[in-house]
Amino acid sequence: MTDPLATLRAIADPAQRAKAASAAAEDAPRPFRELELEALRALVDAHGGTKKHGAVAAAAREMGVSGEALRKRLNPAISDTAEVYAPEGEPGLFFAATEDAVDDLHGWALLDQELNDRRDPTVRGALAAGVSPRQIQEITGLTGDLLTRLAATSAGTAVDVPLEVWESAVPYLADLALTLPMERPARDAARALAGVIGLGVDTHGYPLPLPPGLTGPEFDALSPEEKAERTMATKWPEVEQIPLPDPDSAQAGPDGWAASYCAELTRAATESSGDYAVSLRAVAGVLRHVRTTGTLPTTGDSRG
After folding, report:
1. What percentage of residues in the chain have a pLDDT greater than 70?
2. Using CA atoms in the order 81, 83, 87, 89, what is the torsion angle rounded to 10 degrees?
3. Whose CA is closest to 258, among 203, 204, 192, 172?
4. DSSP output for 104-143
5. Residue 70's Cα: distance from chain center in Å?
6. Coil/strand/helix, residue 145
7. Which of 16, 39, 115, 171 is surrounded by the fewest CB atoms within 10 Å?
8. Which of 1-10, 127-136, 193-202, 226-235 has the lowest mean pLDDT?
9. Which residues of 1-34 are buried (b: 16+ CB within 10 A; e: fewer)?
10. 36-64 b/e with 16+ CB inside 10 Å = b?
11. CA 235 to the chain's CA centroid
């Protein structure tokens, strides 16, 4: 009977040996993990060893991963002190006052939360698209336990929602505001979504009559990003302000925006109570329904 470890060890090229062991490790982690590390060390040694600057980066390129990802796989086999850059990282920021530091910490915490809001939907989508947990782990450095948890949840995966459905969702949310205990969450969502897809709306979230240049076959053929740019550059005499998306939301598109927005709504609902929490959850439910079905909710559809 053929010994699978012996077969892998017989692969002469260390990069190919490491890749083969990495693939096999999904079924039998421990022995293949040891073999993978052994092959990765051999690959780094083939590029001059840990004392040679650039050896880890060169080995990482041969493996098709980032240098940081390879260091994480090898840790503690390879010490960061072998690299030229200082292992302690960058010097701390200068703050003229304690209050400035506190403000910056709040800003960092908000950005970190936004990244975490994007993480789970991105990983779930990658798994649904056929990216292996092993590859996700190598690219992101996320733990196997976290990937297992994300894969096991019943959150589902978004579908390719037509732009016209997203456009119809804007007045739907504006109408929804009239049925909720508090109107503000649905109106804010309607205007935010309108900004992402380049749709002019009034202060209540209802679409406005389109000015010249924002309708017709030529405009319809534009991408969501191009539509947003043209909308922002167009003069709308009927209103004083048009919803403007932040750059990240515009780049993410309506699905990426909705995923992050739902996470924010859910977190805010958890921290709130009463009518406000009910309204927040209702809006999140509508957006999730659109993302996972490609349709607007109808009577009887769950919005919670």
Report:
1. 85
2. 180
3. 192
4. HHHHHHHHHHHHHHHHHHHHHHHHHTT--HHHHHHHH---
5. 22
6. helix
7. 115
8. 1-10
9. eeebeeebeeeeebbebbbbbbebbeeeeeebee
10. bbbbbbebbeebeebeeeebbbbbbebbe
11. 33
> 86: left (phi > 0), else alpha (psi -120 to 50), else beta?
beta
**Which residue in this structure is represented by tokens 């079924």?**
27
Q: Are 121 and 102 in contact (CB under 8 A)?
A: no
pLDDT in tens, 152-188: 777 778 899 999 999 999 999 999 999 999 999 999 9
CA distance 68 to 57: 8
CA angle 14, 16, 22 (to 5 degrees): 100
Q: What is the pTM of this model?
A: 0.57
> How many whole angstroms separate alpha carbon 105 and alpha carbon 111?
10
Q: Is the confidence at residue 57, as pLDDT, over 60? A: yes
SS (H, E, C) 163-174: HHHHHHHHHHHH
Residue 75, phi-psi category: left (phi > 0), alpha (psi -120 to 50), beta (remainder): beta
Instruction: Name which of 244, 181, 172, 231 is nearest 206 in CA terms.
Output: 172
DSSP secondary structure of 224-243? HHHHHHHHHHS--TT-S---
Task: Give the per-residue pLDDT at 178.
Answer: 94
The CA–CA distances, whole Å, from 263 to 5, 167, 289, 291 equal 45, 21, 14, 13
Rounded to whole angstroms, the Cα distance separating 205 from 14 reads 59
Q: Which two tokens stand for residue 16?
A: 């190919």
